[in-house]
Amino acid sequence: ASWRAIGRFLEIADKHGIRPVFVLFDSCWNPRPAAGKQPAPRAHVHNSGWVQSPGAAILGDPAKHDGLKPYVIGVIGRFKNDSRILAWDLFNELDNDNGGRFTAHEAKDKQANALLLLRKAFAWAREADPSQPLSSGIWRGDFEHPNELRENPARKLGRDQLPRLRDPA
């Protein structure tokens, strides 16, 4: 991570009264990230150049998940008391299947492995002991009737593993 770039981003956001939610992992779009020059964006296509993090090669191999621990602890640890950060979204839309666009390239057992990584990410993030709340944005569900959410990753985590929000008063 480029600490200076993140710090500069936080300065600009703060100047405009914005407190960002940083996302560490994301299950949306292309499951084959690669270093180097990226493909040009496609006109009129939302997030056409977005890639998943981690990509299918790491997400699909639980033996590689623990290699992500230094990243989680390092980033959160560095900014754990920074009041300019609203929260940490540990895994954005881990249940997003991308509408079948990348089925041939998705991680093996993507949903199960994403949930496994999410559990680890919560544990690692708690090790860093941030002052900000921890979260994980879900994709699927009848959000007008939250008690009826099916296949909700938060339910699979179990209530004992969900983040506890503190009353700021």
Automatic annotation (TrEMBL):
Pfam families, per the entry: Glyco_hydro_10 (PF00331)
GO molecular function, one term: hydrolase activity, hydrolyzing O-glycosyl compounds
Any one Gene Ontology BP term: polysaccharide catabolic process
Keywords, in A-Z order: Carbohydrate metabolism, Hydrolase, Polysaccharide degradation
Superkingdom, natural source: Bacteria
Signal peptide: none
Location of the region described as Disordered in the Swiss-Prot/TrEMBL record: 145-169
Limits of the GH10 domain: 64-134
Protein name as it appears in the record: CAZy families GH5 protein
Organism listed in the record: uncultured Flavobacteriales bacterium
